[in-house]
Amino acid sequence: MRLTSIVFRAITALACLTMLLPVHTQAQEREVPYWASIRAEVLNMRAGPGRAYPVRWTYKRAGLPLKVVRVHEGWRYVRDPDGDEGWVIASLLSPDRAAIVVGKGLADMRESNDGRSRLMWRAEPGVSGKLGKCDDGWCQFDVSGRKAWIEKNRLWGAE
Questions:
Q1: Are residues 109 and 142 in the same domain?
Q2: Confidence (pTM)
Q3: 8-25 burial string, b = 16+ CB within 10 Å, else e?
Q4: pLDDT of the residue at 4
């Protein structure tokens, strides 16, 4: 009887574990490319998918958008706004969408998704913020609580 009880408990535990596997593998099989942002204050981009590979870049900017182009176990091959590519550990990325202002000159941030609406602020190239919904060539953009609409073509990460 005791052996039967042990076998039953082992089978039950194994069944519980297998129910968790699809959730984990589904997260690993997310369709690429996709957008993410840096979750950590410091993030190392490496030459390969592992801590043994040399560091190519160190980012010290939480919230910076990255484009994930490949997935390998707990690592993501990403492209940054300057076009540099490398591997980062997935746990230091956030699924929260972000964008960075690109192009020349100041970018107008307007009250609505219309180039004639009231000018709220102007953002310099290199300013990053939270990306909201995009509509008719404009995107909602939040820079440290200053929310407005900005032309989509002025944002890297809004594709």
A1: yes
A2: 0.78
A3: eeeeeeeeeeeeeeeeee
A4: 54
